Amino acid sequence: MSHKIEAENFIQDLERVAKVRSEVAAHLGTIAETLEKAESEGKNTSGKLGLDREIEDIKIAGKNLRLGVFRLMVLGDMKRGKSTFLNALIGENILPSDVNPCTALLTVLKFGSEKKVTIHFNDEKKPLSLDFKSFKRNYTIDPAEAKRLEQEKKQAFPDIDYAVVEYPLPILEKGIEIVDSPGLNDTEARNELSLGYINNCHAILFVMRATQPCTLGERRYLENYIKGRGLSVFFLINAWDQVQESLIDPDDREELKEAEVKLRRVFQANLLEYCVEENKNIYQERVFELSSILALRRRLKNPSVSLQGTGFPEFFGALNRFLTQERAAQEFQQAKTLAHQADSHLREAIARRTPLLEQNIEELKNKINSVAPEFHKLAEIRDQFQSEIRTVRDKEATEIANSFRSYVLDLEHTFESDFLRYQPDMKFLDFINPGKREAFEIELKKGFEQYISDKLAAWTINVENKMDAAFLQL
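RE: above sequence
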């Protein structure tokens, strides 16, 4: 069971990690400078030791630590309370919950000394900076317009890649960066936009709603885009306080308890398979019942107030341990490993160089000539390896092409049974009504597109596993 901490403690732990990051980055910088100085001086004496790769790796690791952030991606269907959750998470009401999500703008929330929004385009246009009010006015659309665009399979702002929201908030300053994606119940093009960011995030915060448990769209998204990809996912069941409000008698404690037990069973049945790590059940550390609106109201009145009873202390505790202990430890271990490797390679280079300094030029030339055949053998091994890589590439390309062809051709054998869950319902007499007939055609087309997308996603996962096996073989 995850331990509980309040938002203020979470920020303090992030600050400690940021401080250690800075210290480790400084040490790596010193190591890189020392090695560079040694190489520079050695160039004019006995020659360089060939540590360019080590120096470059250490510089990159130091830079990554100095600029290091924990990137969280927020996924969720429409009307799940994502904006309310994000506002509660960061402790300020900066993301308007009344903004229509059909703008389909992927938004990156990061620290900035000034409050501003920057729009990044997917063409040659330069980024556009604007204030929050202008952003809301220029890049949101009303529901009627959104519905029309959805039916026509058009995007509201096709020339925009994403938006960056900068805000001077403590949680962002301490190294948290949040990627807020468009909704799941959307076009496939918009889903692909979100998928491009998933693998570059430390964790995914998948927002669901207690009063709409595990919809078909959510299950489909998890099955196609999350399952089997080794991603760290936190499932946040939002609006848990509304479970009581939905009861016939909200004051009936027994009825409330029974309703909550049923809901927990539904969520566990659908989410458990995504909460297994190294054959260990971590469901209690990954699924949380939240009341975001209650948490937001409290934090707006007092940022340091206890959030007990909203589910946030439990969530903060699990997220804190995951980021500041597990992920941070991996970062620091990588830096430690690079430093040890540089030290080891330096000692090996010195050990090789020292005996050579005691020999004259003729002896060194003879030694070089004596090992020349070994270098020829290495060149042959290199050529063989390159040939093997090309062979495996061609073989895998052919197998993948044949696999795709066979997969598509085999779809006809199971189409009738597979397509049933995508097929819209329509009564016989509805065909007489032109409006309902047109609506049916639109839903049928949408269902078929989802069917094709799901089938392709299933095939892609299988192919990725085969490609991973081929790389492992090489």
